[in-house]
Amino acid sequence: MNEERMHQILLRPVVSEKSTTAAEKHHQVVFEVLPDANKTEVRDAVEKLFDVTVESVQVINVRGKIKRFGRTPGQRSNWKKAYVRLAEGQDIDFLGNA
Questions:
Q1: pLDDT, tens only, 7-62
Q2: Which terminus of the chain is less hemmed in, N or C, by CB atoms within 10 Å?
Q3: How far apart are the C-alpha atoms of 45 and 7, rounded to whole Å?
């Protein structure tokens, strides 16, 4: 995988109550990834960008909710998220507090 593709795969970390619980209990980090990314690409990108060891990756397609915008119905965009399980003792520090 080339460097440009590796930097494009991970869009942002997902920070929510569920992802925080996953981080504390299961040593997992949750990322929003490109819709066409697969597990091996996500694993390689996380390992090379953050210099950690990845044990497993689970990817989930999240369907966009149907919402109303005033009178007209609309739909939010579909997106993909990846649960990345890190090896014991590994951690990713997003805030830079070493």
A1: 999 999 999 999 999 999 999 999 999 999 999 999 999 999 999 999 999 999 99
A2: C
A3: 7
79: nearest Cα among 33, 43, 44: 33
Q: Would you say residue 80 has pLDDT above 90?
A: yes
In a domain, 28, yes or no: yes
Amino acid identity, position 20:
T
How many Cβ atoms sit within 10 Å of the Cβ of residue 40? Answer: 10
Sign of CA dihedral 89, 10, 83, 18: positive
How much is the pTM?
0.89
Contact criterion met (CB below 8 Å) for 32 and 79: yes
Domain CATH for 40? 3.30.70.330
Per the structure, how many domains does the chain have? 1
Residue range of the domain that includes 40: 3-86
Q: Which H or E run includes 13?
A: strand 10-13
Predicted confidence at residue 24, as pLDDT, reads: 92
